[in-house]
Amino acid sequence: MATPVVATSTFGAGGVHGYGRYSNPTWQALESALGSLDGGTAVTFSSGMAAVAAAQAVLLSGIDPSAAMVVPADGYHTTVALLAGLGRPLREVSMADTEAVVAALPGAALLWVECPTNPLLQVADLPALCAAARRTGTRVCVDATTATPLLLRPLEMGADLVVHAATKYLSGHSDTLLGAVVAGRQDLVDQAVAHRSMYGAIPGPFEAWLVLRGLRTLPVRLDRAQHTAGELARRLQAHPAVQRVRYPGLPGDPGHRRARDTMDGPGALIAIEVHGGQDAADAVAARTRLWVNTTSFGGVESTLERRRRWPGERPCVPASLLRLSVGLEDVEDLWDDLDAALTRP
Ligand SMILES: *Cc1c(COP(=O)(O)O)cnc(C)c1O
Predict the structure, then answer these.
(1) Ligand 1 pocket test, candidate residues 46, 56, 76, 307, most atoms within 8 A of CB
(2) What tens digit of pLDDT does each residue of 24-75 get?
(3) pTM, two decimal places
């Protein structure tokens, strides 16, 4: 039933596989599963950032180095830092502001979208952005880490590449880092493979096996976590210590309608801003007992963190913002712990 962990650096000459930096049967099983979920062909990497690095290199290869890039103002901060480091002009816009994104496209070589964005959970109008990018000859990459292919399939909407940090929901157990680039066009797949073979940011066979194992339960994990997130978001909205709740599943959220039209669910991340600023938010994160105060998301255990504790976090992220990753615990246990942490003086 289970694909084995094929732990070998090299393969006997004359077979399907040659050398461990070029291909591996355990990666292939994972890539086949992930590719079919996204409606394309997946190429796996050693981390989400390795996939980000490969995706931008593939889409910008051979393109005039002075051509600009359009990037999300509240995108994952390491990605924005990587793109900013390329030396090309950077146009930072909110991906939720379709008009602003479209206005920034003429002359841009690459549109980098995150949907929903991490950590503000803003939802982009992907069909409209991909259509506009096609008109200006701008290539589109969508980082769909927070959504997973179960909730968002950007290739179907016209994106050139999709990136996933499989580190999060796809592996699902907070025990491995892995990334993937998914493409519809074979030339882009070939370029992603060539990039991996040359730069060597390959996944370990064991890590690929762990993600493959995680994928088997992705629908039930995500379904449960999303359901709990919806309930918690509704309760948080009414909590006196909470100033704002960002969750596309809430009818009052700016991304609600768009998420309903373009996604198969709002996901299991919630961002809240608490009254009292940074210190109040730090105190909440320090007081929870069931929710673990840690970075990353998408595991079976619920976690939270104040995002601006990282010096590199985007300045548009409020200092009092806590990102909550809802896991699989009982909803009442999660609420009791959160309510107590928010309420205690
Ligand atoms: C975590 C994350 C990444 C980077 O993934 P790593 O596996 O940590 O390198 C990229 N994009 C988004 C949206 C992420 O949340």
Answers:
(1) 76
(2) 999 999 999 999 999 999 999 999 999 999 999 999 999 999 999 999 999 9
(3) 0.98
Q: Is 103 helix (H, G, I), strand (E, B) or coil?
A: helix
Residues 143 and 114 sit within 8 Å (Cβ to Cβ): yes
**Domain parsing of the chain, residue ranges:** 25-213, 217-343
Residues belonging to the chain:
345
Enter the CATH code of domain 25-213: 3.40.640.10
Counting from 1 in the atom list of ligand 1, the atom nearest the Cα of 177 is 7
What angle is formed at CA 254 by the lines to CA 250 and CA 258, rounded to 5 degrees? 85
DSSP designation for 119:
T
Radius of gyration from C-alpha coordinates of the chain: 20
CA 165–ligand 1 middle distance (angstroms): 5
Distance CA 341, CA 345 (A): 9
Q: In degrees rounded to 5, what are phi and psi of residue 202? A: -90, 150
So which residues are the catalytic ones? Answer: 21, 76, 143, 168
Residue 326: burial class (beta carbons within 10 Å; 0-12, 13-18, 19+) = buried
Distance from the first to the final alpha carbon of the chain: 53
Please list, in sequence order, all residues whose beta carbon lies within 8 angstroms of the beta carbon of residue 279, skipping any fewer than 6 positions away.
none
Given a contact cutoff of 8 angstroms between Cβ atoms, the answer to whether 45 and 203 are in contact is yes
| Atom of ligand 1 lying closest to residue 145 CA | 13
Q: Do domains 25-213 and 217-343 have the same CATH topology?
A: no
Q: Express each pLDDT in 290-327 by its tens digit.
A: 999 999 999 999 999 999 999 999 999 999 999 999 99
Is residue 56 in contact with ligand 1, taking CB distance under 6 Å? no
Ligand 1 centroid to 134 CA: how many Å? 26
Which residue's CA is the nearest one to ligand 1's atom 8?
Answer: 48
- Whether residue 249 has its Cβ less than 6 Å from ligand 1: no
217-343 CATH:
3.90.1150.10
